[in-house]
Amino acid sequence: MTGPERRLDALWERVDSEIDGAPRGLPERLLVRLGIPDHLARLLSVTPSLRLSWLSAVAVVLLAAAWTARFQDVAAAPLILLILAPLVPVAGVAVAYGPGVDPAYEVTVVAPLSGLRLTLLRTAAVLASAVPISVAAALVAGDTATRAAGWLLPSLALTVLVLCLQLRLGPVAAPTLVAGGWVGLVAGAEMLPGGGTPAAGQLGCLLAAVLTSGWLWVGRDRFEVGHGYSRSAS
Amino acid sequence: MTDSTVRLTDVIVDYGRHRALDGVSLAFGTGVTGLLGPNGAGKTTLLRVVATALEPSAGAVDVLGLDPRAPAGRLSVRRRLGYVPQEPGFHPGFTAFQFLDYVAILKELTDRRRRHQEVRRVLDAVDLMDVRGKRIKSLSGGMRRRVAVGAALLGDPDLLVMDEPTAGLDPEQRLRFREFLGELGERHTVLLSTHQTEDVMSLCRRVVVLHGGRVRFEGDPAGLAAVAAGNVWSSPEKPPAALVSWRTGSGGFRNVGRPPDGAAVLEPSLEDGYMLLLGGPDADGRSR
Question: Do both B212 and B259 map to the same domain?
């Protein structure tokens, strides 16, 4: 967009706001400032896990865990961080879109821009906001940049797994099951002699990410129709 | 039947072990078609199937000449569809304008100026221009219902599916809404469910009565009233033989069922026909 076009756009923005009395909320304004097109910013602004309150809470929890891991003499602190960090996007995606989560779900699900397209759009936004917080927490905890980037694969694998399970199990059971499985897996690996190797863990997460992505693609049609209906409103 | 916008053939929908629609076949085209039936009759399920929100367990669905089971067909239908759910939900922080703008984006109107023009057109159509900047949570129930109707109208869809759109409207709003829907029905196909027989009588070209997941009647409103021809009578006392009786303003009773000899038979209304259909032996033998 050229300078004059940008100025014209900004002018229209002000005229629109004046006419409609509907100034953008803070999350939406921030997204537009980051270069997100205005229509995508509006779509993303309703995602609860992109609100400042959510992101602030996540940052406080993770950074506190990281601080404890680095500067306090708490033996379990690194393990807690290892468990928490990849679960942040899982929780964010679980409340991003779906039956029982999105109040306008029934209107949304029959819109042309819905289903897997909308789900992946919001998932990408959640990952884009949550992963940097996780990586920052890892750096605070004293990890190297390479090790900090190691959060990416577990985060991706767990997030896609939640997407696969969410429409079958619902917005509460799916992330609960995935979180429980992750906690069990990390705790089990810690009990192995030597605590398991990071390389083996990364390879396992890569394999899981590929498999769950394939599963998501095969079942993509399930995102295109409504879920959560029951006989109560038949 | 070749000009039908929507055609359902032997449609079955199961929720687990409960059968919500049981072999429904019907077709309708341009104009307003009313869907009547008691709670649990399958109205909402039928509307969800037509609106592509729900896939039937069995049977064939044709909407706007397309098959909504195929991804391309479903997307094409959704581009020409407006849907008002029974309990429309809203993002609480949005104003009326912002919510309609949000739905317009979901309807692929990405150009801001065009989109905002369309939102203003719809706000005007549902008479909400004055409150467009107010948060939806501060609006009355009737206004929220109109916001939901406005969302359905975005993009001027060919097919409108509305689940109890007149619920929560006061009498004046309901009259204006009927006038509005009547105009829409001249060019569009409108399918609406309602508990208000007056809505059907004043609006609908066709009426479908659902009960127990099955179609009990399909025809025009006069035909539904005619179902009760010769089976409506008045009496000073409540007769035990009547299927349905209610006290009228004059103090007597209006009765639907088989009239006794010498009874003062009345002209049937659409409501009488509906009551007779639901109160008859086909409706699980229950008397109302």
Answer: no
Q: What is the pLDDT of residue B286?
A: 37
Q: Which residues of B touch A42 (CB under 8 A)?
A: 98, 101-102, 105
One domain, residues B228 and B209: no
Average pLDDT estimate for B210-225: 94
The predicted structure's pLDDT at residue B224: 94
Looking at CA atoms only, how far is residue A27 from chain B in angstroms? 12
Structure confidence by residue, pLDDT tens digits, A29-82: 888 888 888 889 888 888 877 777 778 888 888 888 888 877 776 666 667 777
Instruction: Note down the domain range covering B239.
Output: 224-279
Residue B143 lies in a domain: yes
CB of A222 within 8 Å of any CB in chain B? no
Please tell me the total count of domains within chain B. 2
Instruction: Name the residue among A20, A112, A118 with its Cβ closest to that of B107.
Output: A112
Instruction: Mark which residues 101-140 of A lie under 8 Å from B by CB.
Output: 102-114, 118
Question: Is residue B27 over pLDDT 80?
Answer: yes
Question: Do residues B179 and B253 both lie within one domain?
Answer: no
| Domain definitions of chain A by residue range | 24-221
In a domain, B167, yes or no: yes
